[in-house]
Amino acid sequence: MKRSFERPTWDEYFILQAELAKLRSNCITRHVGAVIVRDHRQIGTGYNGTPPGVKNCFEGGCKRCMQRLEGKLGSGEGLDRCLCNHAEANAIMHCAILGVGSGTKDTTLYTTFVPCLECSKMAITVGIRRIVSLDSYPETDYELLKDAGLEVEIIDKESILRWKKMILENENIDMVPVK
Length: 179
Fold this sequence. Notes:
Layout lengths: L9 H12 L11 E6 L2 E7 L15 H7 L17 H11 L9 E5 L5 H10 L1 E6 L8 H6 L3 E4 L2 H13 L10
Parallel strand pairs: 3-4, 4-5
Antiparallel strand pairs: 1-2, 1-3
């Protein structure tokens, strides 16, 4: 008898990978993770934080983030002074560092927040065609993404929370047949 098992959809699986990547974030104001996927294979990963060799944000490396934490700046203000790279930019740079460059054409970007304007421009430039996210971001230019032909989808958070709970509560996840 053939049994079918419940497992995450591809979108859920890769959003969970982005959620895992954000655990490496060193930014004190927002933790974001991103992965770039081609043909159901992860080709790039990123999280937000200061560049390599620069003091971590949580250690005082980014004065702009510190001012934001102190309530002196709002979300989106003073971004030109922020030293932190965004998760999406880091995932794109990860592909470049590994020589995947042209391999980003027609890929999907999974990210915990829909990208900001700068990261959206980078995604368009490298050929990303689809963005799947857990949440919106106040500085996103949805019209630009639409004009560039990118599909943007906000995934159901409840399904992701369900998988997270399953991971945390079960060391050996029993694959229960779907009824």
